[in-house]
Design goal:
Length: 68
């Protein structure tokens, strides 16, 4: 009886499918995190308008003085 070689194409396909599903899951979690972060920033800006305005002004100054 001749021993059978393992199906390498099946293994590679399984690895690629697993990697794709992990990438998809990572992107989904990242998108959720970024949405929640944006919501938290908006809430903070509504709750602390003076501090939010000062932060926007600082950001504008940083952008004006940034050298390309």
């Amino acid at each position: 009886m001749v021993p059978q070689m393992p199906d390498r194409n099946g293994d590679e396909r399984h690895t690629r499918d697993t990697r794709d599903s992990r990438d998809t899951e990572r992107r989904r979690k990242r998108a959720l995190f970024l949405r929640e972060l944006d919501e938290a920033r908006e809430l903070r800006d509504r709750v602390q308008p003076r501090r939010a305005r000062a932060a926007r002004m600082r950001q504008q100054m940083r952008m004006r003085t940034f050298r390309w």
